[in-house]
Amino acid sequence: MHKRLYRTCVDIALFRNSPTGQLSPIAGTSDAGPYEHFAFLPNPLGEAGPDLSQAAYRSVADARAALAALDATAQRLPNPRLFRHSALRLEAQATSALEGTHEPLARVLTEDIPEGHDPSMREVLNFLFVAEDAFAWADEGRPWNLSTLSELHRRLMEGTHSERNFHGVRPIQVVIGQRHNPDPGAHPITNARYVPPPPGIGLESRVGDLLDWMRVDHSAQIDPVGAAAMSHYAFEALHPFHDGNGRIGRLFIVLFLYQHGVLSEPSITVSPYFEARRQEYYDALLGVSTDGDWSTWVDLFARGLAQSANEARARMLALAHVQARLKETVHASRVRSAKAGLLVNHAVAFPTFTVAQAAEAIGLQYQGTSRLIVSLVEIGVLAEYGQSSYNRRFHAPAVLEILLRNAR
Length: 408
Known about the structure:
Blueprint: E1 21-30, E2 33-42, H1 54-76, H2 84-98, H3 105-110, H4 119-140, H5 146-157, H6 201-215, H7 224-238, H8 245-259, H9 271-276, H10 278-291, H11 294-332, H12 340-349, E3 353-354, H13 355-362, H14 366-378, E4 383-385, E5 393-395, H15 397-404
Antiparallel strand pairs: 1-2, 3-5, 4-5
Helix pairs in contact: 1-11, 2-4, 4-5, 4-8, 6-7, 7-8, 7-11, 10-11, 11-12, 11-15, 13-14
């Protein structure tokens, strides 16, 4: 049967005079039929940053000050890495919500990868393990290239509804959003708000060039906050994967700051700010492509980093205070185990845990760990979490109270 050939709709005019890229004709066939349209090809990032408004420059300076304060606080604490795991769970919940996967924060904070079929929760928690891998690879000096990027994506998609769509860098054309006043009779691709570059060697080359750019220190010409904003825009504009671009792109914001020495401990969560301003976030990214409006995007991005850094610092200080208070409670009690302090540390780092998990963390046999947990429950440092009679979980209520404070 003959299928209708769909042609370009009017929103393409928004991109025709873009100073940050150019349109490229594309054609193909999808389930909806043949189409002819245009994709947007973003220009490679250069050695100099864009000209910004005074407001954007001030926001960048404020972000650097907030990030410096967060880093100084982290370096003063005896073990700031204790706070990383919880921060990544907060990020996992918000970054997944931005992509339409909503799980309650309390559940994300307190569950491990669920057994059985729960692809939604699996999708959220996969981000946690992908992020931990990414920071470990950065510590090892592992180079960022298409292979490592694709491996992160594979792990992000594992066990989810989108796993079947994993092919590394996407082999198909994708679209993002829907334009205003769509034509109900038009092909979905022509109704899209944004059409990223077509698949193929050209896309792979552009992604590889971006990863190369992100490895280079541009601080002599571009403030690292501005460079992180530029690289995030470029990643999202290329949209290299069928699914998961937003989550990996926002992970790379923190990874970029970590690799370039802006943060010595990556316990910052950037997605809650953007999730609360979802449409503003998407509009600012699109504005770079349509109008070359870097100022609006960098201003929003930098304000987000500043607020995120301030919240991370406050959360880190609050958790450190709770950690010290719980250890004082233990010291004032009759508990005399040399492992009690390590168990408190574990309860600060992991919102809930099993006896087996705690035993492995503190280096004590299972029965000894179980007795120690009971002792800390009796003095109010720990409490049982949930009502499961199998594989019981425990937590420090004061820790979970801090982590859930802003979710109410």
